[in-house]
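Problem 12. The chain below contains 171 residues. Write out its predicted structure in token notation.
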Amino acid sequence: CEQIIQHLNHKIPGINTAELCQRIQTSGVDINIGDLAKIANTLSFLFSTAARNNLSTEELVTALGSGVSTLPKHAVQVIRHVWNDQGKAIAVSEDARNTATVGQFVDMKWKLGVAMSSDTCRSLKYPYVTVTLTVADPSGQITDKSFEMTIPQFKNFFRQFKEMASVLETV
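Solution.
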């Protein structure tokens, strides 16, 4: 809940569900990453809707109690506590309401590799670049996207980044 509030306040780019899932599993709770992602999306929707409607803590708890009968009592208590402590900090401006949400670039890693051989070819000596982009989607889920490029493809990729950098310098 606290990470979702921080994400909605733009203090962190998103929720790293893989890391969070591992921490929860280490504490002894049996949960998979898919279920955790669904919970994070639901809580993000809940908190952003409550902020947009300027709900007080009691209004939020009353709405949860009347609309969601399957929500455990301790879950409602956690939501109440976090919303009471940090919920009012969520700033929802008119511009934010009217802006389409897009993902956010978090990090990029790359490595150079050489394929030496394979089952069908004894001598490849084929260089390639592996790029891993870390992005946070609009709901705050952080994911890694990886792809490989040949050296000419990487040079084109690099040239395009240089063009973007020069355009950004003129702004």
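Discussion. Residues 1-96 form one domain. Students who got a different answer should revisit the alignment rule from Section 12.3.
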